[in-house]
Design goal:
heterodimer, A: mainly alpha, 11 helices, B: 400 residues, alpha/beta, Rossmann fold, 2 domains, seven-stranded mixed beta sheet, 17 strands
Chain lengths: 288, 400
């Protein structure tokens, strides 16, 4: 039971990391390799609010989420849209966006290095035991898990229960056809990309309560998100959530019952198995 | 990707304002190169231990007019910085570039054992002295034999592990702890080497290692490890960890209420931010490092570090890093020129007065160094060393 809860908490953390990229890649078709830098930026804002202002780091969300939304909107509007316009097909856009965002991640790391400095940022917040079925769990992790559930729930409802969500899903399925039914694809993509960035930055705020970060640690989160998004199936929020949970559980089971040294191996083994037997991802649809 | 940035904050500013222009024009600046991580996994550590000390050193030396040469002139230090992105291959390239393109007069050793040792052949090829402060290895005898210009200061892995065993044995003899040790390590060079050094020593001293696991670098959830360690019901917890894991393991141990009377973690424990993060709950925590806080030169160094860089130095490698720069400075001034061969020879034989006290290299290595420190009332004094004076007695950790 303890293992399951620990695994679920980790899985929820992972889905929080991957949710933003799902939106960005699934809808806007931008494989954003600078995704992890957004996590770090959010984390740093939380750290700053906590240590310089002695306030709850969660308050940072009030500024970080709109700011990240705006920043990502601008990035999409001015950096990525030219690539979208230029791309003749989806494959070309993917290659271009991978290269562009890879470069962008270096730029962002450099900027953060300049503004935050190179040091670790870490602090203690809600680092107290929270008993579930008698065994203690970190309250900060539990909070991150709840936030993750809330964010995933909201996104799921937003995508499946609202008109705007339907438009987003339509673009994810077929941008060309969506355009035919008078959906402003370009706007929807920009919105999805910006929303993805905002969710990712929000994830950073909650992760910072239990992870020690520095300006250049973002790539770690990008990689994790990438694995989850690909495992879950491109553009499906459910897929990403399930994949994140599976990954979290698998890592925890392996760490607890077999050997902690094999967690990475287990994660990548799962990844390879999914790629071998379900290359479109758990919830993806096969492309013709 | 390497960015070249002259350290204008200290160097140029002090020079321009505090010195008459004539003196500044008189002698060419002395070019000193430095390569260390500004990004990548080691960036957080260099931001605490490496870069601030270079800033402090340049400010101090240039503040008094620069390095004094044989002919009586003074040459200010000009720093050339490169980021190796925590990648030893980049370190090699950057050192090569400093030697051949920038024609640096001297090069400060890179940060990190792997980075430093990877660049050692390049230092040797171009005849540069390399005071490899942050290199900790058991291969010191072989390496010093192979590279005539390499020097070590922080000691050997086996001594670091041995000191921990010594402290635990003493606590056991005093009846403060029992026999059971839970040991974990990060599956990366430093963690593996220390765990391998520690295992036989613990066994030889009659300890029972009841939990012995490694975890991959960058593991985001260490709670299975702490839960596992707790389930093994240990008397002492020893982690050969890296700074981010040191933070995570300590936090989780607190959450899990891992009640051990001896709690040891690796690099990161000696950082001021460890105390900022955990406050009083880390009283009695043991960790790699330690310094002699009572020595006057250490007090002066800590004050100067705070004044110039705006932050406190760590309680381990910061002071030796500064001391290594003092060695370079005193050797250059003693030789009175940038004759690298003569500087190497001088470092091999002379005694230097540093913030760590007098330093004399024996077979190119400092053999008196701190190995274990302990958090006591908000400070992290050394409690064990290889023959240094000033060790404080250890205390027992009691609860969180």
């Amino acid at each position: 039971m303890e293992i399951v809860i620990t695994g679920a908490l980790l899985g929820a953390t992972y889905s929080l990391i991957a949710m933003g990229l799902t939106l960005q890649y699934g809808v806007a078709r931008i494989m954003n390799l600078a995704n992890g830098e957004m996590v770090v930026a959010g984390a740093f804002a939380a750290f700053w609010v906590f240590s310089a202002r002695q306030l709850s780091p969660f308050l940072a969300a009030a500024v970080v989420v709109p700011a990240a939304f705006a920043l990502n909107w601008l990035v999409y509007r001015y950096v990525l849209r030219p690539l979208v316009r230029r791309a003749r097909n989806r494959g070309m856009l993917e290659v271009d966006s991978i290269l562009a965002t890879f470069g962008m991640s270096f730029t962002l790391v450099g900027l953060m290095l300049l503004t935050f400095g190179g040091g670790y940022f870490t602090y203690s917040y809600l680092a107290e035991p929270f008993p579930i079925f008698g065994s203690p769990f970190g309250l900060n992790r539990v909070v991150a898990c709840l936030v993750s559930v809330a964010v995933c729930g909201l996104l799921y409802w937003g995508l499946n229960g609202t008109r705007a969500g339907m438009a987003i899903r339509a673009v994810a399925v077929d941008p060309a056809a969506a355009e035919l039914v008078a959906i402003d694809v370009s706007r929807v993509c920009a919105f999805a990309f910006a929303l993805g960035g905002a969710v990712t930055a929000a994830a950073g705020i909650f992760l910072s309560t239990f992870l020690t970060m520095d300006a250049s640690v973002g790539v770690v989160f990008t990689l994790k998100a990438l694995i989850i998004v690909i495992m879950g199936g491109v553009g499906d929020v459910r897929g990403a959530i399930i994949a994140a949970l599976i990954l979290g559980l698998a890592e925890t089971v392996v760490a607890s019952l077999i050997d902690p040294g094999l967690t990475l191996a287990a994660a990548y083994l799962l990844f390879v198995l999914v790629l071998l037997f379900r290359p479109q991802g758990l919830f993806g649809t096969r492309q013709s | 990707m390497n960015r070249r940035t002259a350290l204008k904050t200290a160097g140029a500013a002090v020079l321009a304002s505090a010195l008459p222009m004539r003196a500044a024009m008189a002698a060419e600046p002395i070019k000193i190169g430095t390569v260390a991580a500004k990004t990548g996994p080691l960036a957080g550590a260099t931001a605490i231990t490496h870069w601030p000390n270079i800033q402090l050193w340049v400010a101090e030396v240039n503040g008094r007019g620069g390095l004094k040469m044989k002919d009586g002139s003074r040459r200010v230090i000009q720093i050339i910085e490169y980021d190796d992105r925590t990648n030893p291959a980049e370190t090699i390239k950057a050192v090569e570039r400093l030697a051949t393109q920038d024609k640096a007069d001297f090069i400060i050793a890179a940060f990190g054992t792997a980075q430093s040792l990877a660049a050692a052949p390049v230092f040797a090829k171009h005849g540069y002295p390399q005071i490899a402060v942050s290199s900790i290895t058991d291969k010191i005898p072989e390496l010093t034999q192979r590279y005539p210009g390499i020097f070590f200061t922080l000691g050997a892995t086996s001594a670091l592990a041995g000191s921990v065993a010594e402290i635990l044995s003493k606590m056991r003899a005093e009846g403060k702890i029992g026999n059971r040790i839970a040991m974990v390590n990060v599956a990366d060079a430093f963690g593996i080497e220390l765990a391998e050094a520690a295992r036989p020593v613990f066994k030889k001293d009659g300890f029972e290692i009841v939990y012995d696991k490694s975890y991959p670098l960058g593991t985001q959830d260490l709670s299975p490890i702490v839960k596992g360690a707790k389930a093994s019901n240990p008397d002492a917890f020893v982690a050969w960890s890296y700074p981010p894991d040191t933070m995570a393991l300590t936090e989780l141990a607190k959450i899990e209420n891992l009640n051990v009377r001896a709690f040891y973690t690796g690099p990161g424990t000696a950082y001021p931010l460890y105390a900022q993060k955990f406050g009083r709950s880390i009283e009695g925590h043991l960790g790699s490092g330690g310094v002699n806080l009572d020595a006057p030169e250490m007090k002066a160094y800590r004050a100067a570090h705070q004044r110039v860089t705006g932050k406190a130095p760590d309680y381990w490698a910061s002071a030796p890093t500064y001391a290594s720069l003092q060695v370079l400075e005193q050797a250059i001034e003693a030789v009175g020129s940038t004759d690298r061969k003569a500087v190497i020879d001088h470092i091999k034989t002379a005694t230097f007065s540093t913030v760590m006290g007098p330093w004399k290299f024996k077979n190119q290595a400092i053999d008196h160094y701190w190995t274990v420190g302990q958090w006591q009332s908000g400070e992290f004094p050394g409690v064990s060393s290889t023959g240094l004076p000033g060790a404080r007695p250890t205390i027992v950790k009691s609860g969180w």
